[in-house]
């Protein structure tokens, strides 16, 4: 079964490791991904904060293209932000006839339509539910034994989508345990990283949230964090220096996309997993698990 | 009586359009002021009014004060309030609506929507988000070139890892996309 793949803008450069490792892992697991041709940005929360109809139309363009090019295929994304707004668009279009009509008129301007047949999914949920434990474990050659990983999922994976528990999502911890990692008990797994506030004039608030996330992970013995969202990833990884400067801490906690850790367990190489692009190096941490 | 008051406030507040307005109007009336939203909000401590107070203020006909507050701009869209509300109020969506209303009426705190406007600007033009141009536009629009300079060490670290987007990526259908968005602008968002 093929899936239409929507990488999302961050994955083109700033978190390209997520895109690279997704392709590598999909190849190794026999998951067929077809990238959506000429996809556009989902607009995510900044767009929805300023305009409603345009945001739904931006997302309906992607959904309409997916429906046209690969009918019957689910649309898979790896970003919580993209996932959240595409899922919202699908649900709002299904329940609101007036909105459906107005989005339809906008799409007609570019000779496109969307009939609502595309299911929006997150790659993590696809791996856990469609492939499942047995299929994944069969391919594991380098189990991550002894690696203490805190599963950090953030918000939009399970809220408000409901694809996992809204308060205590388990998909990421499950997957990590299947590939041999020691999953750290991490109650902040679905807490907020501050999202876009980190780049705004509300940065102070976001730095404090990230400080809490890092402090709790370290206190609980994590040697790294696993993420499933580029924005969470950027906030907890690339901003560690600024958190340290602000709070007088000395965090140096590697953060890896779950696809990178999965790739390591499947015996994939550094380059194809985009390892070495992190600001907090994970080289020493992963060395014992890589051949 | 309370219901009638709230009802008229909401009607005059002109909350959004269509189904969305109907839903939010119903929500304002059904809030039981338990404060679960405020207790769940990770940024409430920095807000002028907590989420619970926002609803109380709207019921008391204080829409302008609400729109002038920093509250909607501190919402990180984590959806904890939404999934925990015992009355089923989708407060996160309500925050988005308040942001749109504040911008439409020019009541927002100065600078608050600047980042979002810079973001949308690049998306509409290229069809993709362009992080570098976005940050340059943002700091220039807030007349804060110092912010840009402070960002330089971070940018350099990203550059050294091949993670600094120097040029915007463009989609093939960007002219079509622009036509679609122009059409919406002409017809109106609401």
Main pleated sheet of chain B: none
What is the element string of chain A, with H for helices and E for strands?
A: EHEHHEHHEHEHEHEHHEHH
Amount of beta strand of chain B: under 5%
Multimerization state: heterodimer
Shape of chain A: globular
Q: State the share of residues found in helices of chain A, binned by percent.
A: 40-55%
Would you tell me which CATH topology of the largest domain in chain B applies?
Fumarate Reductase Iron-sulfur Protein, Chain B, domain 2
Basic shape of chain B? globular
Examine the secondary-structure arrangement and name the CATH architecture of the largest domain in chain A.
Answer: 3-Layer(aba) Sandwich
The major sheet of chain A is characterized as: 4 strands, parallel
CATH class term of the largest domain in chain B? Mainly Alpha
Contiguous runs where pLDDT drops below 50 for at least 5 residues of chain B: none
Q: Assign a percent range to the helix content of chain B.
A: 55-70%
Quickly describe the structure.
The complex is a heterodimer of chains A (291) and B (190). Chain A has 291 residues and is of the alpha/beta class.
Structure characterization notes:
The complex is a heterodimer of chains A (291) and B (190). In chain A, helix 6 runs parallel beside helix 7. The mean pLDDT of chain A is 97. Chain A has twelve helices and eight strands. In chain A, strand 1, helix 1 and strand 2 (32-35) form a beta-alpha-beta unit. The two termini of chain A are 31 Å apart. Helices cover 47% and strands 10% of the residues of chain A. Chain B has 190 residues and is an all-alpha fold. Chain B folds into two domains: 2-104, Alpha-helical ferredoxin (Fumarate Reductase Iron-sulfur Protein, Chain B, domain 2, Orthogonal Bundle), CATH 1.10.1060; 114-187, no CATH class. Helices cover 62% and strands 0% of the residues of chain B. In chain B, helix 8 (114-126) crosses helix 9. The radius of gyration of chain B is 20 Å and the shape is globular. The interface between A and B is large, with 63 and 63 residues.
